[in-house]
Amino acid sequence: MPLNEGSHDDAPREGFEEELGAVLRSTGEGFSVEGRHELVSGGLTRGRRRLVRRRLAVTGGALALAAVGIGGVYGGSLLGIGGKATAAGVAAAPTPTSDTAKATEPSEAEKRRQAQMPQAQIPVKDIAAVIQANTPAGQWQFENLDGKGQSALGVYDDGAGKASVSVGLYRSAGGEGEAGAGQVECPSEVHVSFDSCTSKRLAGGDRLMVIQGYEYPDRREDTKHWRAVLLTKDGLLIDASEYNAPAQKGAAVSRENPPFTAAQLKALVTADDWRPLLDQLPKLPETATPPGAMPGETSGPEIQSTTRSLLPEGLRVTDGDGDHGYGFLVVDDGKGKSLVEINVQPRMGDVAHQLYASGNVTTLPDGRRVKVTQETAEKGGSGVVAWTVDTMTADGFRVVVSSLNAGGYRKAATRAEPALTIEQLKTIALSLRWLQEPKK
């Protein structure tokens, strides 16, 4: 049956535990890593959207799967069908953007990086045919069936309401084996709002994440985003997203939930039909800079390690993660959880005049500028405040440390003030250890 006229009936897929999942923004598709309010304000113009995930091999980033495109993924956006590639990382960037930003709008640096990446020329109709063959009966309308690329976008209707569905094929920038595992690990709820998420290793060595969440983390609209990502043992990714609306954004909700259950999403991304198409993905170019990173950026693990070494005694770390140029920890001194975020950015001198033009700014004898901000957290829940120390050396090396009196964004305050005082935040941000860390 023609692709745009209907779908054949398909037997129910084998059970996949229970319906679960949660979804993140994707640096091309999915949830954005956002809410790092203070780190965004003042012009972190070189940030890229990343989705930060727990124990992330990405990300963002991010991503929070990030932008999910997926952090650390090479390829076109799930929405960039048959056209020029857009950001495909769910990670999105070391610095967040507001949740009103479109995940399909990468930074200029990311656009330049993507433009240099080899893109597959898989006929979109072939990707659409595999989607149709591995989903329940329904009417399909696919976009750009005459085009070529690494993804397909369609609108599916089983009679219960139209739903946007997309599938993208990518190579993991992490390579084969465990190096890319972070791309299929559930994100931390510090940055991503979801109902459920599961990540598991399948028989044969592939890894699968299924996540059910929302297009807008603040849930200002009822658009749900459910997603399944399969990472094969040879480092290839199949990323499927579905919504309970005929478009990812800007369309009214058409049904209570997206059409496919967790078991059906699993069946879609694990179908053997994908292998001939995955074999058409181009090899990744050799590069000295980690995917998604900018030259000179500090890695997530480095930021985690340095920050932990600088924490005052008496704090217990309950959560943490990071990506290129960004890291976070959730700490607790016995009086309530407190989120601590760190951005480390080289070569920011050209925007110093914007960042430190006003506010509580001082200049140290060695030329380093220090700006202190204490205000209500823009993305925080009830009673949440953000304390931030923003520093930059004379040659443009920037370290920003921020803390909330809550364990995450959009969560109510857990304590009267952040666990770290302004002086303790200064100690972390101004430590010379940041300048001594090898930049990868």
TrEMBL record:
- Source organism per entry reads Streptomyces narbonensis
Kindly state which keywords UniProt assigns to this record, in alphabetical order.
Answer: Membrane, Transmembrane, Transmembrane helix
Q: Where is this region: Disordered?
A: 92-120, 284-305
Top-level taxon of the source organism = Bacteria
**What is the name attached to this protein's record?**
LigA protein
Does the record's keyword annotation contain Transmembrane helix?
yes
The membrane spanning regions, by residue number, are 56-76
